[in-house]
Specification:
Elements: E1 2-5, E2 11-19, E3 30-33, E4 39-48, E5 54-62, E6 64-65, E7 71-72, H1 83-86, E8 87-89, E9 93-96, E10 101-109, E11 117-128, E12 136-138, E13 144-146, E14 151-161, E15 169-179, E16 182-191, E17 200-206, E18 212-219, E19 227-234, E20 243-253, E21 257-267, H2 269-275, H3 296-326
Parallel strand pairs: 3-14
Antiparallel strand pairs: 1-2, 2-4, 4-10, 5-9, 5-11, 6-7, 8-10, 11-14, 12-13, 15-16, 16-19, 17-18, 17-20, 20-21
């Protein structure tokens, strides 16, 4: 559901609700079990629950896996190659008054030659500004400028096709990442199979002596089949300095499958400088020596203690010499 406040003060609030035949339960997205070469018929309810007129554009997209996992949907300009290209809507433009709704029919035309397993796309509703309304902002110099706002809501469409189901997760590479004081180790992952996965496990990072420095747990969201991502593992507490490290990744997924991936990687001084700055260091930044830097007051306190102990020792020695001379 999304909403837009107009210049008149009213708000258009748009929602998409799946309508499934022979079902009394509430569904948040469509799931169709079908066959290659078949056509599926569906209906979606477009609702304006707001207090202003809503001009709505409907279109379809493919589902993708986000860089930190989970299903995301690209801009409509991205070429559709999966469910987004199979979906056909009977209408793509609606004008809805407050509290008005309209049913939109659609079909899913499945190609005859298509792989088995899970396929995901979506129906998107984009709310446009009505004619005659304007949206303006004011800059720091009090100069007005126009802002184009796009308000979107999406309902997912999942199509399951029969055949041999394959669960195959592979890791490809590892490198340092991060910015603004947050350091990550990025590992390339590819779902080579034909079903959705939700991997979970741990990443252990060791120094060049084999000692573990980080033990990062991970519980990923949905990983769509035939997609690849660069997954960022967040470094915790003490950051990694420049040097050579070993990434040891273990992920469990699907029906008792395990991915084990071990590879060395290098962090350069330039990469550390790009990640950390004096203005923004949420993590404890690394030091050149590899040891944590002590606060100035503590270092100064140790120095003063040593100096004071030295003065006492000299005074004691001179006092003993003076006593021997008198005796």
């Amino acid at each position: 559901m999304f909403n837009q406040t107009l210049a008149s003060g009213g708000t258009a609030t748009i929602a998409l609700k799946p309508l499934l035949p022979h079902s009394s339960s509430v569904h948040t997205y469509f799931v169709f079990d079908s066959q290659p070469g078949k056509q599926i018929q569906g209906r979606v309810l477009v609702v304006n629950a707001g207090t202003a007129i809503g001009l709505v554009t409907l279109y379809t997209v493919d589902g993708m896996t986000g860089e930190d996992s989970g299903v995301v949907y690209p801009d409509r300009s991205v070429t559709r190659q999966d469910v987004g290209s199979w979906l056909h809507l009977t209408t793509t433009r609606l004008t809805l008054k407050p509290s008005q709704s309209q049913i939109v029919d659609f079909t899913v035309d499945i190609p005859a030659n298509v792989r088995p397993g899970n396929h995901v796309g979506g129906i998107v509703a984009a709310l446009d500004s009505p004619t005659g309304t304007t949206t303006t902002q004011t800059s720091a110099q009090n100069a007005p400028f126009g802002v184009q706002l796009r308000h979107l809501t999406i309902v997912a469409v999942q199509v399951n096709l029969p055949g041999v189901l394959q669960e195959d997760l592979q890791a490809t590479d590892v490198h340092e990442g991060g910015a603004n004081g947050f350091q990550t180790v990025v590992i390339g992952l590819h779902n080579m199979g034909n079903v959705m996965l939700k991997p979970q496990g741990t990443l252990v990072i060791r120094n060049d002596q084999g000692q573990p420095l980080q033990n990062v747990p991970v519980k990923m969201g949905t990983f769509l089949p035939q997609t690849a991502i660069n997954y960022p593992f967040q470094i915790q507490k003490q950051a990694l300095g420049a040097g050579t490290y070993q990434a040891d990744l273990t992920l469990q997924y699907g029906e008792n499958h395990t991915l084990k991936f071990t590879k060395d990687f290098t962090i350069t001084k330039d990469e550390v400088r790009k990640t950390f700055s004096p203005q923004n260091t949420p993590l404890q930044p690394p030091t050149e020596s590899g040891f944590s830097m002590q606060p100035f007051w503590l270092v100064g306190g140790i120095s003063i203690s040593i100096l004071f102990a030295g003065v006492l020792a000299v005074a004691f020695y001179l006092g003993r010499r003076s006593s021997k001379r008198r005796s």
